[in-house]
Specification:
Elements lengths: L1 E8 L2 E5 L2 E5 L3 E5 L5 E5 L6 E7 L10 H10 L5 E2 L2 H16 L6 H24 L14 H13 L6 H7 L4 H12 L3 H19 L4 H5 L1
Antiparallel strand pairs: 1-4, 1-6, 2-3, 2-5, 4-7
Helix pairs in contact: 2-3
Length: 217
């Protein structure tokens, strides 16, 4: 599945494969399969967003294979900032899609498929016409120790590492490290480590010829 986010209200950190960005109202982002990501509020717990989860084969009935491939290649996982007019266009289509979300008759399914394609076409146009947004400097950036810990986990997830090992790498007590890690990322250290391992394992299952036993090791 691919996860498409359209941010409406609130400001949040997003950690993508260990790199920290900030999402502002008017931003859109596409998260690809098997990409580790966590979100955490920056200044307030309140936020509003639209989320669309879709599998590429959902488009099979509307696009030819070559068309679908070209279409998906344009949709990258960069963060793109929309104008007020563009945000309004997306919200309008999301509202139409939401209207039929809980209906499953044949007509409703066809409408949902059409609205999904319309959303993705709009996003493709935005990505094609605009430059990727440059992330603004944060007045309250995550603590460097947490960014260092995330980088260490992403580099050494395949090794036998534990909480004490990671905490020692950034020179913090494991108890203090656990607390601030969760405050920044919204996940515990072990949850993040497990998610990274599962994500990488899923990617290897799809993209490599390794046996499950080899990947599990």
């Amino acid at each position: 599945l691919r996860n498409f986010f359209c941010w409406l209200k609130g400001i949040r950190y997003i950690f993508l494969d260990g790199v920290c960005h900030v999402l502002n109202p008017g931003d859109i982002i596409l998260i690809k399969p098997y990409q580790t990501h966590y979100m955490q509020s920056l200044s307030s717990d309140f936020y509003a967003r639209y989320v669309l989860n879709f599998a590429p084969d959902y488009l099979d009935g509307m696009l030819k294979p070559a068309e679908k491939q070209r279409f998906l290649e344009v949709l990258q996982n960069d963060i793109l900032h929309l104008t007020t007019e563009q945000s309004g266009e997306l919200v309008e289509v999301f509202e139409r899609l939401r209207k039929y979300y809980n209906r499953h008759d044949a007509v409703a399914e066809k409408l949902k498929q059409n609205y999904c394609l319309e959303l993705l076409l709009l996003c493709r146009d935005y990505y094609t016409r605009q430059e990727r947004t440059q992330m603004p400097e944060l007045s309250a950036a995550p603590r460097q120790e947490i960014l260092d810990a995330i980088a260490y986990i992403n580099a050494h997830y395949a090794e036998k590492i534990d909480l004490e090992t990671i905490a020692s790498q950034i020179h913090l007590s494991k108890y203090y490290f656990c607390r601030i890690f969760r405050e920044v990322t919204g996940a515990t250290v072990l949850e993040y480590l497990t998610n990274v391992r599962l994500t990488r394992a899923g990617r290897l299952l799809v993209e490599s010829s390794l046996a499950i036993q080899e990947i599990a090791q």
